[in-house]
Specification:
Largest sheet: 2 strands, antiparallel
Mean pLDDT: 76
Radius of gyration: 25 Å
Number of domains: 2
Strand order of the largest sheet: 1-4
Distance between the termini: 22 Å
Number of strands: 6
Length: 586
């Protein structure tokens, strides 16, 4: 039964979100919602500075790690604000991309960048060793080049062109495998103490599904009503903050009473609240990332090819995240110009990341998107607030370090629920296909299995990839080591070459749903995806319809835009959005 039919029959329908993309919650709620999203992002980005600090082989690893931690959080905040305000304009958090670790590892295995063995003379001028900043400058240069290529791909609309040929059997494995492929990361966090992880997951499920509709009286104040109480569904709005606070407090009690082992080699040690106290001591009070602070970046073909492969994987995952964010937010599917702009600004943020020496690119975080489905808070303002909080964490090192002290098993439980939401959103796209068709079941099964199997095989047998070119070998390892790329690519190819009607493939219903969401909610489309302040001026310039990142861009495969007030060439005029495609009989 459709939503319209349920409405006509008098059956109550659940509101998709409590705060939509364009809604602005009260200031105090906005800060708390933003903090909730920032906590999720920090948990995912924390491991990158540790990995990079080890690969760079500095003499003072603790100080370098603290410096990289501040830069990473600062860049997460900057990238989030740019993406939400100018990019795809959906509620999306940008965090450090772990996809770029593989090419960095490959670069650091080269003879001239290899770390010296213990006991080796690493004094300056030795001649057989280089400073850690030389390694960082190589990473910076190749990251900047690859990110410039990403800006080119987005600004020229290449992704938008490809999406014209993409259907549900490509979207489903791409989005679902983003969540499913990270199960080993979730397990890595949870295995540090399964009891604490499961307790956190219990509270998350309790608050977000069982008592989510319970409204709690909250003290409030306004000029009209003075002091009064206001009832809010607190457990649904803040399940992560409340769950983390409860279990973190319990972990502190168990730490003080020495229930958790103090030996770092024993399982369960990372559940202690003092297991990462060195972050607090290592982090500076104030810092500001400056461009070229480590020197002039250097470049190499092998490094660029590796970074480019990671960039392509990041683009594929981000496009899947855009669709997931739109569906969880109750927003129309993103049009071509929004996707192009999102990829462009991800590239621009990664260029800035390379300039200031973060050592990694930024990409959309699937876990934070999953939180939208739990909290029902999809406000763009909240995510911009989260970006501002992350910037403050990067500038004031002690603030970020305090949030980074959250025990790992607690982070693992929140990731388990949020990434599970992302995986289920991908599966929900299959409602547009005929799932009684053996053709579709076969394509889907092969896509999922190969998407999980190929990366796992490559991780264990990477040395068997030998084409005669180190750059090509590295690109193959990175691309086909990404589950969402493998699953989406196989789904795309099989869906294109195996015969099937548009109805069977779900293409007609997918396009119809996209067109209806645009025409029936044209005001919402304008609010969600149009650039602030300047869109009305851009739409007055006819030439702007040819720029792929312009809000008036004409995607030749799905829409057309004209200034005349008449039906022509299969298009019809709507007052808000100009001409949209007429739905055709299939």
């Amino acid at each position: 039964m459709t939503e319209e039919e349920r409405s006509n029959s008098g059956e109550e329908t659940e509101k998709p979100v409590l705060y939509g993309v364009d809604d602005v919650p009260p200031a105090h709620l906005t800060i708390l919602f933003g903090l909730q999203q920032a906590v999720m992002c920090i948990g995912g980005s924390l491991s990158l500075p540790y990995i990079l600090a080890t690969l760079l082989c500095p003499m003072d690893e603790h100080n370098v790690r603290a410096q990289l931690l501040s830069i990473a959080m600062f860049m997460c905040g900057v990238a989030t604000v740019l993406q939400c305000f100018f990019g795809v304009r959906l509620p999306i958090i940008q965090g450090g991309s772990h996809t770029f670790v593989a090419p960095v590892v490959a670069m650091m295995t080269l003879e001239r960048f290899r770390c010296p063995e213990k006991g080796f003379d690493i004094s300056p001028g030795n001649g057989t060793n280089i400073d850690w900043t030389d390694r960082m400058r190589e990473i910076q240069g190749n990251l900047i080049l690859a990110s410039m290529t990403q800006v080119f791909v987005g600004s020229f609309g290449l992704i938008g062109v490809i999406l014209r040929f993409v259907g549900p059997l490509t979207i489903a494995p791409t989005v679902s495998l983003i969540g499913l492929s990270l199960s080993h990361v979730v397990a890595m966090f949870c295995e540090t103490h399964w009891g604490i992880s499961m307790l956190t997951l219990f509270f998350l499920l309790l608050f977000s599904t069982c008592i989510n509709k319970v409204e709690v009286p909250i003290p409030s104040f306004s000029l009209q009503r003075k002091c009064h109480t206001k009832r809010l569904p607190v457990f649904q709005l803040f399940p992560v903050v409340i769950s983390v606070a409860i279990v973190w407090s319990l972990s502190h009690v168990l730490t003080v009473t020495d229930v958790f082992p103090s030996n770092s080699t024993v399982t369960g040690h990372k559940a202690r609240t003092d297991s990462k106290l060195e972050i607090m001591t290592d982090s500076p009070w104030f810092t500001f990332p400056l461009p070229f602070q480590f020197g002039r970046p250097t470049f190499s073909l092998a490094g660029y090819m590796g970074m480019m492969a990671a960039t392509i994987s990041s683009i594929i995952e981000s496009v899947g995240d855009y669709f997931a964010a739109a569906r969880l937010s109750g927003a129309p599917l993103p049009p071509a110009h929004a996707i192009n702009r999102g990829i462009t600004f991800e590239g621009m943020s990664s260029i800035i990341s390379g300039l200031v020496g973060a050592g990694h690119a930024t990409t959309s975080y699937s876990g934070n998107i999953g939180i939208i489905g739990i909290t029902k808070v999809a406000s763009r303002t909240v995510f911009i607030a989260a970006g501002v909080i992350l910037i403050i964490c990067g500038l004031v090192g002690k603030v970020g370090a305090a949030l980074a002290l959250i025990p790992e098993p607690i982070i693992g439980a929140t990731l388990a629920l949020s990434l599970g939401m992302v995986a289920s959103i991908g599966i929900s796209v299959l409602q547009f296909c005929d799932m009684s068709s053996s053709r579709n079941i076969t394509i889907l099964g092969v896509s999922f299995l190969m998407g999980l199997m190929v990366p796992e095989w490559l991780a264990e047998n990477s040395q068997k990839v030998k084409t005669g070119s180190d750059e090509l070998d590295q690109m193959i390892r990175v691309l086909f080591g990404t589950a969402s790329f493998v699953g989406g690519f196989i789904g795309f190819v099989l869906d294109a070459i195996i015969p099937g009607s548009k109805h069977e493939r779900g293409i007609d219903r997918w396009v119809k749903m996209s067109d209806q969401s645009t025409s029936e909610h044209s005001t919402l489309v304008s609010g969600v995806y149009d650039l602030p302040f300047v869109t009305k001026y851009i739409k007055r310039v006819r030439a702007c319809q040819y720029f792929p990142i312009s809000p008036s861009f004409v995607n030749c495969g799905t829409s057309c835009l004209r200034t005349s007030h008449e039906e022509t060439d299969g298009c019809k005029l709507t007052e808000e959005n100009g001409l949209l495609p007429l739905q055709k009989e299939v």
